[in-house]
Amino acid sequence: LESLNNIIELGPIYDERLMSIAYSAADVFVIPSLMDNLPNTVLESLMCGTPVIGFPVGGIPDMIQDGVNGLLTKEISVSSLSETLTKFLNAPEIFDRNNIRENAVKKYDQKIQAINYIKLFERIIKES
Q: What is the pTM of this model?
């Protein structure tokens, strides 16, 4: 990576506002996790309107709508990741960043999640 001029390493970011700016400035967020349940990094990226590329593992396919808010690789391999990155780089304009953010807010906003938990708890109590 040292030979590439267009990569900027930000290092650890602890400030939420700065993290939001970094996600928003990125063209794409790539998560090469081989195991992950519901990664916060994917959620943070989507909430900033940044498309995500990842492997179809764990909760990642539940978060990424292929071709809508990001891309899923066909398989778990370096070549598939490289192929998917190339696909994105050839047509990044297919992703509507405003739409990505709006859909993420509708699905993952804390208020919506709280309401969903309340409904779940009420259903569990009712069934008990």
A: 0.84
